[in-house]
């Protein structure tokens, strides 16, 4: 295909199978982070204890980042065992951890109660520390260039399983286990395994636990939280109605329906124009700039004319483009764009007045693409 001419129309393709509902499995144990403040007090009362005990547990988990019951000395020993057993069960076990970037990037594979595996990544920068969390074990969106999408969906994660990924990263930073000395998590991105808006209830619950002021939650600003989606239009509209100030990130990856039908199969249901209309409505209601995520794939979606088309679609809107050099997976035919094609794509977007940055790719030497490390651990 020419890098300058747009392709001719082709015959309509059969849409690939998409999986929205997770397979039925046993539920994770109930955890403090699954519950609102009022629900925690009710749960403690059901155990025959005073509701203020729920506040004590919340303070240990969310404010003090404590995971050792022996350190919860304001609770009588016998009572501590009952409350911790009922409301702070162990949810996740780290089965593999890899570090890179001089110890400032830490990727963890977690095993849940039922043996499913998923990942989180802690990335420390000079001015911030970002946690990239998973919302599902696997993913049902079937994007062909994504390791997670090719693995399929195992199940949705619970609110507490999502929150615990953040809490674990916060503990690691607070205790100085990450290069650079003690610190705190400042940013959260729902860009790990899974499609966040396909697990809407758990993700919104996790956002509220993450952002509620301590000791109700972790006290991270909503403006420091980014929720990504491949373009589930009704869920984007529902998110807008939450009236939160989280940032919306749309994984677009192609500006034209013909290519996006292949790269992001959900496009067979909601086309580019519908996804962007929902994004602009979200930006208007939230006042937050929308992030357009675009993985640059060599000779697939990195042509200069596609940069022009993307620029025309986005110009004049409250938007920022985040170009992502593709982190190739083993054996995949997909690979990152040539540097000169990447530069030209950036130039075309800037010519339309669209703000654009190229993501700082981390973790290539530790199977950095979503799903790679979990897949290799499973094997």
From TrEMBL:
<keyword id="KW-0819">tRNA processing</keyword>
<feature type="active site" description="S-methylcysteine intermediate">
    <location>
        <position position="370"/>
    </location>
</feature>
<comment type="similarity">
    <text>Belongs to the radical SAM superfamily. RlmN family.</text>
</comment>
<keyword id="KW-0963">Cytoplasm</keyword>
<dbReference type="InterPro" id="IPR013785">
    <property type="entry name" value="Aldolase_TIM"/>
</dbReference>
<feature type="binding site">
    <location>
        <position position="146"/>
    </location>
    <ligand>
        <name>[4Fe-4S] cluster</name>
    </ligand>
</feature>
<feature type="compositionally biased region" description="Low complexity">
    <location>
        <begin position="1"/>
        <end position="17"/>
    </location>
</feature>
<dbReference type="GO" id="GO:0019843">
    <property type="term" value="F:rRNA binding"/>
</dbReference>
<keyword id="KW-0489">Methyltransferase</keyword>
<keyword id="KW-0949">S-adenosyl-L-methionine</keyword>
<dbReference type="Pfam" id="PF04055">
    <property type="entry name" value="Radical_SAM"/>
</dbReference>
<feature type="binding site">
    <location>
        <position position="228"/>
    </location>
    <ligand>
        <name>S-adenosyl-L-methionine</name>
    </ligand>
</feature>
<dbReference type="InterPro" id="IPR027492">
    <property type="entry name" value="RNA_MTrfase_RlmN"/>
</dbReference>
<dbReference type="InterPro" id="IPR007197">
    <property type="entry name" value="rSAM"/>
</dbReference>
<dbReference type="InterPro" id="IPR058240">
    <property type="entry name" value="rSAM_sf"/>
</dbReference>
<keyword id="KW-0411">Iron-sulfur</keyword>
<feature type="domain" description="Radical SAM core">
    <location>
        <begin position="125"/>
        <end position="365"/>
    </location>
</feature>
<dbReference type="GO" id="GO:0005737">
    <property type="term" value="C:cytoplasm"/>
</dbReference>
<keyword id="KW-1015">Disulfide bond</keyword>
<dbReference type="InterPro" id="IPR048641">
    <property type="entry name" value="RlmN_N"/>
</dbReference>
<feature type="binding site">
    <location>
        <position position="143"/>
    </location>
    <ligand>
        <name>[4Fe-4S] cluster</name>
    </ligand>
</feature>
<dbReference type="GO" id="GO:0070040">
    <property type="term" value="F:rRNA (adenine(2503)-C2-)-methyltransferase activity"/>
</dbReference>
<dbReference type="GO" id="GO:0002935">
    <property type="term" value="F:tRNA (adenine(37)-C2)-methyltransferase activity"/>
</dbReference>
<feature type="region of interest" description="Disordered">
    <location>
        <begin position="1"/>
        <end position="27"/>
    </location>
</feature>
<protein>
    <recommendedName>
        <fullName>Probable dual-specificity RNA methyltransferase RlmN</fullName>
        <ecNumber>2.1.1.192</ecNumber>
    </recommendedName>
</protein>
<comment type="function">
    <text>Specifically methylates position 2 of adenine 2503 in 23S rRNA and position 2 of adenine 37 in tRNAs.</text>
</comment>
<dbReference type="GO" id="GO:0000049">
    <property type="term" value="F:tRNA binding"/>
</dbReference>
<keyword id="KW-0808">Transferase</keyword>
<dbReference type="GO" id="GO:0051539">
    <property type="term" value="F:4 iron, 4 sulfur cluster binding"/>
</dbReference>
<feature type="active site" description="Proton acceptor">
    <location>
        <position position="119"/>
    </location>
</feature>
<dbReference type="GO" id="GO:0030488">
    <property type="term" value="P:tRNA methylation"/>
</dbReference>
<dbReference type="GO" id="GO:0070475">
    <property type="term" value="P:rRNA base methylation"/>
</dbReference>
<feature type="binding site">
    <location>
        <begin position="194"/>
        <end position="195"/>
    </location>
    <ligand>
        <name>S-adenosyl-L-methionine</name>
    </ligand>
</feature>
<dbReference type="Pfam" id="PF21016">
    <property type="entry name" value="RlmN_N"/>
</dbReference>
<dbReference type="InterPro" id="IPR004383">
    <property type="entry name" value="rRNA_lsu_MTrfase_RlmN/Cfr"/>
</dbReference>
<feature type="binding site">
    <location>
        <begin position="251"/>
        <end position="253"/>
    </location>
    <ligand>
        <name>S-adenosyl-L-methionine</name>
    </ligand>
</feature>
<feature type="binding site">
    <location>
        <position position="327"/>
    </location>
    <ligand>
        <name>S-adenosyl-L-methionine</name>
    </ligand>
</feature>
<dbReference type="InterPro" id="IPR006638">
    <property type="entry name" value="Elp3/MiaA/NifB-like_rSAM"/>
</dbReference>
<keyword id="KW-0479">Metal-binding</keyword>
<keyword id="KW-0004">4Fe-4S</keyword>
<dbReference type="InterPro" id="IPR040072">
    <property type="entry name" value="Methyltransferase_A"/>
</dbReference>
<keyword id="KW-0408">Iron</keyword>
